[in-house]
Amino acid sequence: MPHPSSAHLNLWKQRLGRVPESVWSQIDLETLVLADNTLSEVSAQIGCLKRLRTLDLGHNELTRVPDSLAELEELSDFLYLNDNRLIRLPPSLARLKRLRYLNISENAFKALPECVLGMASLIELRASDNQITSLPDSLERLPRLRELHLRNNKLATLPKSIGALKELRQIDLRGNPLKNLPPIIAALPLLEKLDLRWVNAFDLPAWTATLEARGCVVYR
């Protein structure tokens, strides 16, 4: 059964500068698109939109997001925070236990925000084009993850705990200064794509032949 149009508000590229106050009273919204509006802040009132399933705040000028985002516990489909000026996320966002897709690419994160590791339903995580130097062992707390996109960061390796992510289909490591990778990657049963393009000073591990032999595409 299709959702009524009143449940979806698309304000993409409207040159808003700030979010109209009237938006916060639309408590039945399930989709809110505020992308590409030169927003530098978002009101804490966003926490009133309890039924949101998709929120797009990408392509703005945000340096922070409000703690009240954590109150959007129905947020299950998509959260876009890409192409902003973020260096951290509120720890409270770990409460977004139902979220399946998160995009924090094109920001200034030096580490994967701790709250992300609490989002146990994540299927796709996009954190490309940041300054992330390492991933924590607690990455294993994302057991449903199928796609991990880390292009153009500062990673030298990945934690061995990546071997616990049995649902992984794709790992994108393009443009990282890799020195090695844990051989446990070869044991990921569903891996379909390992992208190592634009990685210099890194010899392709012998175990990648095992992946290729069972149909995984290794890009180099």
Task: Count the E strands.
Answer: 10
Question: How would you sum up the global shape?
Answer: elongated
Q: What is the name of the CATH class of the largest domain? A: Alpha Beta
CATH architecture of the largest domain: Alpha-Beta Horseshoe
CATH homologous superfamily designation of the largest domain? Ribonuclease Inhibitor
The major sheet is characterized as:
10 strands, parallel
User: Which spans of ≥5 residues are poorly predicted at pLDDT below 50?
Assistant: none
CA radius of gyration is 19 Å
Compute the number of structural domains.
2
Helix segment tally: 1
The share of residues in extended strands comes to 5-15%
Average the pLDDT over all residues and give the rounded result: 96
- Could you give the order of the helices and strands? EEEEEEEEEHE
Q: Helical amount among residues, as a percent range? A: under 10%
Could you tell me how far the N terminus lies from the C terminus, measured between alpha carbons in angstroms?
45 Å
What does the model show?
With 220 residues, the chain is an all-beta fold. The chain has two domains: 1-129, Leucine-rich repeat, LRR (right-handed beta-alpha superhelix), CATH 3.80.10; 133-220, Leucine-rich repeat, LRR (right-handed beta-alpha superhelix). It is 3% helix and 14% strand. The protein has one helix at residues 208-213; strands at residues 8-10, 31-33, 54-56, 78-80, 101-103, 124-126, 147-149, 170-172, 193-195, 217-219. A ten-stranded parallel β-sheet has the order 1-2-3-4-5-6-7-8-9-10. Helix 1 links the parallel strand 9 (193-195) and strand 10. The radius of gyration is 19 Å and the shape is elongated. The chain starts with 7 loop residues before the first strand and ends with a strand. The relative contact order is 0.09. The mean pLDDT is 96.
